[in-house]
């Protein structure tokens, strides 16, 4: 329904598992919709229903969060969409998926660089440089963006890059290998001059 509690017809409804669209539906003139839930082993925290229509703000309803809400609010079956010029279309979801996949690849690359650097320190460098490994567990920030909830923040994590692994395309994380970059710059520019 809209904010005046009138049914909205023609809202696109996507059922997504791990960022992949599994079923598509549209709301009727009464505002009702139906999506077919896929059975099998999957994490309900990764299952979402996306409602989108031009002129309204898109909604991303997580299966797990909605189950929690319905257990605390008896008969909660009305979804209100706010008027807005911004909406996720199917095309936007696919574009977000490609951006999300790029950052996933980048984060894996960061993880490989960090793990390689830690092994290098343990296998090649003298014991006095082991303190660098501690830095990998405390000074490796990542930037978190949730485009659905408009949440943006920095966090500090360990050397295994980003702990918030998700396939939801509107959630984008970017790890920054600050310690690894600093360490390799030290080897290239400072150790060469002292030897």
- Helicity level, as a percent range? 25-40%
Low-confidence region ranges: none
Radius of gyration: 23 Å
Which structural class is indicated by helix and strand composition? Answer: alpha+beta
Quick tags:
195 residues; 4 helices; 2 domains; four-stranded antiparallel β-sheet; 34% helix; alpha+beta
Describe the structure.
- The protein contains four helices and seven strands.
- The chain is 34% helix and 22% strand.
- It is elongated, with a radius of gyration of 23 Å.
- It is an alpha+beta fold and 195 residues long.
- The chain folds into two domains: 77 residues, no CATH class; 102 residues, no CATH class.
- The chain has a four-stranded antiparallel β-sheet with strand order 2-1-3-4. A three-stranded antiparallel β-sheet has the order 6-5-7.
- A hairpin with a 6-residue loop joins strand 3 and strand 4.
Short recap of the structure:
With 195 residues, the chain is an alpha+beta fold.
Topology, element by element:
Blueprint: E1 12-17, E2 20-26, E3 47-52, E4 59-62, H1 63-72, H2 90-123, H3 131-136, E5 140-146, E6 151-157, E7 171-175, H4 178-194
Antiparallel strand pairs: 1-2, 1-3, 3-4, 5-6, 5-7
């Amino acid at each position: 329904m809209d904010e005046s509690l009138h049914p909205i017809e023609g809202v696109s409804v996507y059922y997504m598992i791990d960022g992949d669209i599994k079923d598509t539906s549209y709301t009727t003139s009464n505002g009702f919709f139906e999506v077919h839930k896929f059975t099998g082993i999957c994490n309900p925290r990764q299952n979402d229903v996306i409602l989108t229509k031009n002129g309204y703000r898109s909604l991303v309803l997580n299966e797990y969060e909605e189950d929690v809400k319905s257990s605390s609010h008896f008969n909660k079956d009305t979804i209100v969409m706010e008027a807005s010029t911004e909406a996720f279309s199917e095309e936007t979801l696919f574009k977000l998926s490609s951006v999300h996949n790029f950052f996933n690849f980048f984060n894996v690359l960061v993880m490989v660089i960090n793990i390689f650097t830690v092994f290098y320190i343990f296998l090649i460098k003298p014991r006095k440089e082991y303190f660098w490994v501690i830095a990998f567990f405390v000074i490796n920030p990542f930037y978190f963006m949730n485009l659905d909830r408009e949440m943006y923040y920095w966090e500090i994590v360990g050397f295994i890059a980003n702990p918030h692994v998700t396939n939801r395309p509107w959630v984008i994380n970017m790890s920054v290998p600050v310690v690894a970059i600093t360490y390799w710059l030290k080897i290239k520019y400072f150790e060469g001059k002292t030897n």
